[in-house]
Amino acid sequence: MRISATARRDAAGDLEGYLFVLTDMTAEREAARLKDEFTGLISHELRTPLSSILGYLELIADDEENPLSAEQMGYLATVERNAQRLLRLVGDLLFTAQVEAGKFSLDRRPVDLRQIVTSTGESLRPTAAAAGVTLSVFLPDGEIPVDGDPVRLGQACDNLVSNAVKFTKPGGRVAISAGIDDSGDEPVARLSVSDTGVGIPVEEMENLFSRFFRASTATANAVPGVGLGLTITKAIATAHGGTIRVASTPGEGTTFSLALPLRSDAQDRRRLATAS
To answer: β-strand 188-195 against 253-261: which pairing, if any?
Structure first.
């Protein structure tokens, strides 16, 4: 049951009581469960044939006894690119199904957030250059120590930067920065991705991290995607005990900021340094 309560007041503004409304959510929850099961089943069924397709593509391309022409290799490259795109989509669908089912786990270890950002910058710089977008990386000299899953953190960083590049028009800029933020009660590791892209309308912010949601600016500018990247990124941030926030101005750009707890030993060192 979903319960909502509203205060009732008289003409003088004095409290008379409360109005409680109970809504039966059984059917809605069951529909959501079936949708998650369907997503997981379809994802598993798609992954096997896609892996087979990619395997045979590699065999054909590497067959030295029967070499292909340049034109044929171009066709194979197109097939492989789209098969890889489908495989990434299947992986995203499986990931969201795991999150919804509460089966999402992390392989935690000591991580320097600078390495995550550096790797993302190196891998996505060619994509940004092809789109006519300048990609810049700003990092401190010292370590940014966190306790986390490097693969998942890399996935979150990749999602934010690839989104920024996609939503930025040629001639625009995307900046990745990371460091230790001491402005709050506890120091945190903060990763920020800013762009000069199309922005996000204020009224759509509350739905931004919902599965399959796509902002009107995405559809208006024909930006490709299915609306899973930010959902996954938020799930990764939450699983690490972190938070993600966004600030955007339509027509000017967007900034996503991911805050993660510092590694415990690093927090202790900073407390001692502050106390002394």
So the answer is: antiparallel
Of the candidates 91, 81, 161, 156, the residue with the CA atom closest to the CA atom of residue 121: 161
Q: Which two tokens stand for residue 47?
A: 């992954």
Cα separations in angstroms, 190 against 11, 157, 245, 252: 49, 12, 11, 22
Rounded to whole angstroms, the Cα distance separating 81 from 205 reads 32
Indicate the burial class of 264 (C-beta count within 10 angstroms; 0-12, 13-18, 19 or more): exposed
pLDDT band at 173 (very low <50, low <70, confident <90, very high): very high
Structure tokens at 118: 């550096």
pTM over 0.85: no
Task: Tell me the Ramachandran region of residue 171: left when phi exceeds 0, alpha when psi lies from -120 to 50, beta otherwise.
Answer: left
Q: Token pair for residue 214?
A: 């796509």
Torsion of CA 257, 260, 265, 269, to 10 degrees: 30
pLDDT digit string (tens) for 178-202?
A: 999 888 778 899 999 999 998 888 8
Residue 267: both structure tokens together:
């927090």
Give the orientation angle of helix 70-101 with respect to helix 229-239, to 10 degrees: 50
- 132 phi/psi in degrees, rounded to 5: 75, 25
CA dist 191 and 209 (Å) reads: 18
